[in-house]
Amino acid sequence: MADFKKEKGVVRAFHAALDTAESAAVTGIIASFTGPRILWRGYHPFGELHGAEAISERFWKPLKSSLTRLQRRDDIFFAGRNEIDGFQSVWVVSMGHLMGLFDAPWLGIPSTGKMAFLRYCSFHRIEDGKIAETAMYFDIPHLMMQAGLQPFPPQTAAHLVQPGPMTHDGLLFDSQPVSEGKATLAAINAMISDLGQWDLDLPLEEELARTWHDDMIWWGPAGIGSTYTIERYARQHSEPFRAGFTERSKTRHVARLAEGHYGGFFGWPNFTARPTGGFMGMPATAKPGEFRVIDIYRRAGDKLAENWIFIDLLHFWKQQGLDVLARMGTQNGRVDHS
Question: Please, are residues 43 and 313 in contact by the beta-carbon 8 Å criterion?
Fold first, then answer.
């Protein structure tokens, strides 16, 4: 069995303290659970933050002031050793929603006074009992849509809800068999190998069937949407994406790990590509752009069954000359320049 109980305990205790903290206590709580040189990577407009005070003042305090009575509702929780550094570091992953009452504007997004859900995923590297490094990605465009905004043209797929695993077994608080984690990581790596080529001498659906179940679900971000079955995934995302980009770089990750039937990775960025055919209803720019991505997977048998995806689309399109947050703020009579 792979035992990451200590590392998981650090993150669970951190979440419990942070989620219930009043604003004045947030900085101290972050400082008590993190190392002195904590690096925090976040979705645009946050980027890289260094130190507990910056993380508190730039992200957590404003968010908790906007989404009041904040609750963390996790669907997946696992840990593992990072393949990218030769399985030396241990990371703990949590994924779900931050739910609250949207009582004050955030990032120029108007408040609604109603329940709102911010989909999120975080990777925490644990070192000497502290959180030494964090990557935390969100789905801010989905929050915009909940506030009645339309940050992007119509999606190729559907963005409805983002549930957790169909099997309802994603919270791995206890130890898992090492063999299961190895099998999950092998399935993820096989998929990455196929995906990174884009030139296998196979029809797209046959290529996907090598590593995915036919009834796969791809839980994509707002702006692209989610899709079900290999046939619809190929038509509603994979084909449009491949047609819209050229010069896709090799995949590179900061962390890639698995435990039990769950695994995932993130990059900063994962890859770069040049939009030459138009994508997401946007015109082609031919400017190279970075894709910062988190992918979380559930394996069933020897293939992948579900995939939850976080893509920093705000960062990507800003590189192409479109500041979605500023545009949304302008349309609502204000612009947030933070």
Answer: no
